């Protein structure tokens, strides 16, 4: 039997149609079989008709008649019917058979079957043969159903069912073989008895055909069964291998990073080793799969015809098995790579942990020691000197730790690099697996340990630098303090000396007074003695007079009393002597008195002079003391002022410190990000090279080539510009060096002043810090007392049970802490937050206020608004900070801040504090400019002020009264609802919407509007409007604070987006503000989706312009500058001068021969223009860089120069026309070309100037016709030089 060729694969619908056709054919065959049971007997033929060739066939299967030439049409019709039936039979068996020629009986058999017994015997043989043939064909049909194997999802089960079916068919074939043997033996025996060779030959050929078909069925069935068994085994082994591969792939993709705990790293290393050992043990599964695949391929090849094989399915599973083998090898390679990476990483991690922990402890201990030293009270210079020596030793110790810190930071960087490499390997494996399996993996936001290491790096470095700076500054401060104390000591010594001198002067004055008193006493004694001498003298004179009288009397008695006279003479002499002595003594006393008086007068005068000197000294001292008191009073006033200033300076100092820390972190992150970006780019390029096909590689190379060409043209332009700048820099170098020297001098002076200010501020800061600490202690004490007074006492058995009877608690003491104020339990019961059983439990003391507060946290405090944003390596930050750094738009940040205020508090995510709007403004958490706006939003939580009511009103009432619009009110209410419910400003608790309706906080219209989730907030990522709930769902909860942080993509620092303008750089933010860049392009730059060179090419007209007319093109001489053409009289002086001014006004003088852009100064130095034209060209150049105006500190534009009379209007219009023709109006501050409409908005020109420029005034001279023309017309006549792109004006 000829086997049918294998048809091409068909679809399921075609197979279904073919199955229906086969079933229809089967029904028709069964119908024919039933009809074949009645055999048509042929009429006997007369001898005359023996010559006619008539073949008689049984009608059991088909009819075939041979008729004479006169019945040809009938014979053809019968043959056609027979052919149709043959096709039906062939379709039923699934094979295209040739017409069964063996069914034709030999003519002689039919002719010899004239008798009825012969006919009956022949019919019986044909019927049995036909029945056997039909059974064989049925078996062939059943076997043919297993030619094409199409397994479903459960391939093993399908193969098992097919094997069972084929085994049943095989049993049927064995029965047919037995039946065939019996029938053959019987019929052949009967044919031998007939002695008819032709019949025997016919029957033999029939049996041979049936035997061949049975043999083919037996071999096909056996081969099909073996093939199915091999396929089943192969599918089972593939399934086992795939399950094992999937399990290990899942285990390998579970972790996206490593750990900072050495024990966890060691544990994972042991896990990887265990997985590797397990894979080695189960390698026989892979070997078995490959062996089963080979076996299935072998048995498939044993099937007779290629059309019966399942080559495509085996090819599919061969590819699948190859993929599994490749995945197996990738798993082994990934495990080996991870083991190698982790084994290299673990020693670095252990070493870092061993060195960083003691260093951090040392830093903390040293900081405490430093703080303790700064808090030490110093009373005298000796203590200060000892303190300085201790501080010097501590400072030396801190400096000595620098190498240790650098070593630890280096270990930190090594660990970070190891982690990044490890994460890159894991990400590469996962992405490769995604590409291989074409199945995206669900990823979570990776919290890399490298971020923690980076934070530790920043923490250690910042703390150490802070400690080093603090120690050094404090040491300097102590040195200055020592100098000050020594100076003070000297001043005190001087004051003590002056006081001692004053004391001595006072003592001298007292001594003088006492001496004066003694002198006065002596003088008094001398005056007494003198008076006594005078009285004695008087008495002596009296005695002398008495004696003279006596003498006169005695003279009378002289003669009689001679002796008495002599005695009297002697007495007189003696008295005279005594009188002389007394006179001499009196004279001496007078001389001594006068001498003493003179001495006294001189001493007195001297003392008076000394007293006057002391008085003046005293006056000066008093004046000095008064001045000192005045200075002390002024110092006190200044101290009071400085305290206020110190607060502002402290905030400024904190901002400076924060900015410095931010800059340090930014620099560190920038360096690390650069390294990370470089590694990522290397990894990406490696992955692209390994994964992309050749076609994509070619396409990428072509795109790269185009981009390189663009960059090449861009950098060529940049190079040209840079060469000009280099020349400009060379010319300005000397001037800058001179300025640098002067600036250095000023800088040193400023540094000294800054150091003095820092020392002053630090000393004041120490004092303020002490005061602040004392104030903090007092504040904490007051807060503790206030909290104690606010919170009710905890009710325990001792407080609520007396004599075994539980006493009810006073309801007024059941106070809960609401959003902005306290609320009583009775109020919570009335508004439905508490139910009656809970309230009774509180009254009876069965439940405590803190316990119930936890249960009702959503109502009392809410779930919290969105606290801030989380930006990659930068970490968390407030909305105001993100707005300042341009990470989110102003509008989005303002709306999210209003949502915070409307829900009760402004959140400081870094300090994890809830603040009022006023507190947030005072602490710098939000901008003071936003205070009014946020206070209006805060009123949604505390109530709006209504002049008609004493109490604050709700949001709903404020919208009804027009205090706020309905959209704003809905936005505030949506934020409140997302946090916990509608916030009642009177109770300060969140209530469900149904309760809020009952309490008239909202109405049904507002409820319907809130239920529709209106989109009133702006998504910071997409800048699209979304609801507040949608933003909250995207937030991540910070584990240690519970704050909701909105993750946003990290963006580039806008300050790093620097473009090269006409004469100086310009930032991307400035280009955005002036309209050169649109917001989508600016955001693409921030996200790294576009680069500065790419955008520079797109905005070349604004950044560089199209270029002015560079020179002339004159026949044989070729191109030349306007100055050279003027010298050679190819241009008139006026025409050349105007064209040179146009060049200067558009930014540069062009040297066409060297293709260089020069400043006017450079052009004069290089001889491109005449030095005689320098002043005029400098004036024209001011149109590009700005005019100097004595009334303005900044340079002014052309329009400003016209208004201030610096240049006339005609000149200004001519220069502006040149700029407009090149690219727009040149902004001298930004150094870019702007369209006239933008220039009007930027006040670079007026509307009248814009209208004048639109009329294209003829301000220039045509070199050919010497007529006035506009600059645009001259540019249109220019030719572009191919190799340079310069515009050259043809001149004959």
Automatic annotation (TrEMBL):
It is found in: Cell junction, Desmosome; Cell membrane. One of its GO terms (biological process) is skin development. Residues 231-292, 495-767 form a coiled coil. Gene3D superfamilies: 1.20.58.1060, 1.20.58.60, Plakin repeat, SH3 Domains. Residues 1-29, 84-109 are annotated as: Disordered. Pfam families: Plectin (PF00681), Spectrin_3 (PF21019), SR_plectin_7 (PF21097). Keywords: Cell junction, Cell membrane, Coiled coil, Membrane, Phosphoprotein, Repeat. Residues 84-101 have a biased composition (Basic and acidic residues). Belongs to the plakin or cytolinker family. This is Desmoplakin-like. It comes from Oryzias sinensis (Chinese medaka).
